[in-house]
Design brief:
The protein is mainly β. The protein starts with a strand and ends with a strand. The protein has 1 helix and 31 strands. About 40% of the residues are buried. The strands form 8 sheets. Strands 1-28-27-26 form a 4-stranded antiparallel sheet, with no helix packed on it. A 4-stranded antiparallel sheet has the order 2-3-4-5, with no helix packed on it. Strands 6-7-8-9 form a 4-stranded antiparallel sheet, with no helix packed on it. It folds into 2 domains: about 270 residues, YVTN repeat-like/Quinoprotein amine dehydrogenase (Methylamine Dehydrogenase, Chain H, 7 Propeller), CATH 2.130.10; about 50 residues, no CATH class.
C-alpha cells in the first residue's frame, strides 16, 4: 500500500467522501461539496448551499444527497444545483446511508429518519439516548452507532432487534469485513462483532494515540484499514496489523474507488494504491461466481486463501478445489 496522490482545494476539514456515478465527491467544514477528476486531481465543480459543515454524503436513486450541521439534507442535480431540501431533524446530521431502497439519516437529535425518493420522511427510528454518529447496512440489517456507546441493529420495518454493547465511548464508524461488523470508537478501540452469532464481540483491537479526530475504518482489497491516530493501518482477519503508513493526521473518512483508497486528512484528500495483484477466486462448481477479491503479493497468496477457509495448496494445481486467476 503506497500513497500516490493528494487532492487539495477545500478550505476546511474533509468530513466525508462518496463515489457517485463514477466520480469522487467530498464534503467539508467549509460548507461546500466538491466533485473531483481523480485522474488529474482537479476539482470539477463546487456545490454550494449548506450553511455549515457538510458531514455526510450518499448516492441514492440516481442523485447525490448531503447532510450537515445546518440540520438539512440536500439533493443535488448533476450540474451542481440543489434541487430539494429535506427537513425534519432538529439537530446536526452526521450520517447518510441507503438501506432497503430508502435513504436513512442519523442525527444529533438522537433519531434516525427514513426518507423515500420523493424526499418525504416516512419513519423515525428512536432508541438511542445520545447523538447518532454513524450508519451502515449489511446483511439485511441497518446498524447505528452513537454517543451513548452502543450499536443498535434495526430490521427492515424499523424495529430494533439487538443492541451491541462493549465500547466505553462514542461509536464513530461502522463497516463490514470478513462477514463480521467492525466498529471504531473514541475509546481507542476497534471491535469485531459476529452478527451471525447474535452479535458476539470476538475481538478488540486497541489503537494507541489520540483517536478523537481520526476514526474511519473501511474494507478494501481483502483487508481492513483504519485511520485512527496518525497512521493508516492495514489489518488482517485475525486482528493483526500487517502494515502501517505514517500520515499527517487521523482520517476523518475513507472510501474505495477502483484500485485506490481515498481518505480525508485535514483539508486534503489522500490517495493510496494497493500494491500486488488482484486475486479473484472462483468455485469449480460454478466458475462464473466470484468468491473473493483480494490484493496480495504472490508469496502471500496461499496463506491468505487458507486463512479464509479455502481448500487450496501452494501450487494451485488443477486438482485444487478453487480456481485462482491473477489480474495485473
Amino acid at each position: 500500500m503506497i500513497e500516490d496522490g493528494v487532492l487539495e482545494g477545500h478550505d476546511g476539514a474533509v468530513w466525508c467522501l462518496c463515489v457517485h456515478h463514477g466520480h469522487l465527491f467530498s464534503g467539508s467544514s467549509d460548507c461546500t461539496i466538491k466533485e473531483w477528476d481523480v485522474r488529474t486531481g482537479q476539482c470539477m465543480q463546487t456545490l454550494e448551499g449548506h450553511t455549515s459543515d457538510v458531514y455526510a454524503l450518499a448516492s441514492f436513486d440516481g442523485a447525490l444527497y448531503s447532510g450537515g450541521d445546518d440540520k438539512t439534507i440536500r439533493r443535488w442535480s448533476s450540474d451542481g444545483r440543489c434541487v430539494q431540501v429535506l427537513e425534519g431533524h432538529s439537530d446536526w446530521i452526521h450520517s447518510l446511508v441507503v438501506f432497503n431502497r430508502r435513504l436513512y439519516s442519523g442525527s444529533s437529535d438522537y433519531t434516525i429518519r427514513c426518507w423515500n425518493n420523493m424526499g418525504q420522511c416516512i419513519q423515525v427510528l428512536k432508541g438511542h439516548s445520545d447523538y447518532v454518529l454513524c450508519l451502515y447496512s449489511f446483511g439485511g440489517i441497518l446498524y447505528s452507532g452513537s454517543d451513548d456507546t452502543t450499536i443498535r441493529c434495526w430490521n427492515r420495518d424499523g424495529t430494533c432487534v439487538r443492541v451491541l454493547e462493549g465500547h466505553t465511548d462514542w461509536v464513530m464508524w461502522l463497516t463490514e469485513f470478513d462477514r463480521c461488523l467492525y466498529s471504531s470508537s473514541v475509546d481507542g478501540s476497534i471491535r469485531r462483532w459476529n452478527v451471525e452469532r447474535g452479535g458476539e464481540c470476538e475481538c478488540v483491537i486497541t489503537v494507541p494515540g489520540n483517536t478523537f479526530y481520526g476514526h474511519a475504518i473501511r474494507k478494501f482489497g481483502g483487508s481492513l484499514f483504519d485511520g485512527l491516530g496518525r497512521n493508516l493501518c492495514r489489518w488482517n482477519a485475525y486482528g493483526e496489523c500487517v502494515q502501517k503508513i505514517s500520515t499527517t493526521g487521523g482520517c476523518f473518512c475513507l472510501v474505495e474507488m477502483g484500485r485506490h483508497l481515498y481518505g480525508g486528512i485535514g483539508s486534503s484528500i489522500r490517495r493510496w494504491r494497493m500494491r500486488g495483484n488482484l486475486v479473484r477466486v472462483r468455485t469449480r462448481s460454478n466458475p462464473d461466481v466470484l468468491g473473493y477479491s483480494i490484493y496480495v503479493q504472490e508469496c502471500e497468496l496461499s496463506s491468505i486463501l487458507v486463512s479464509r477457509g479455502f481448500e487450496t495448496n501452494a501450487t494451485f494445481s488443477p486438482t485444487s478445489s478453487w480456481h485462482v486467476s491473477l489480474m495485473i
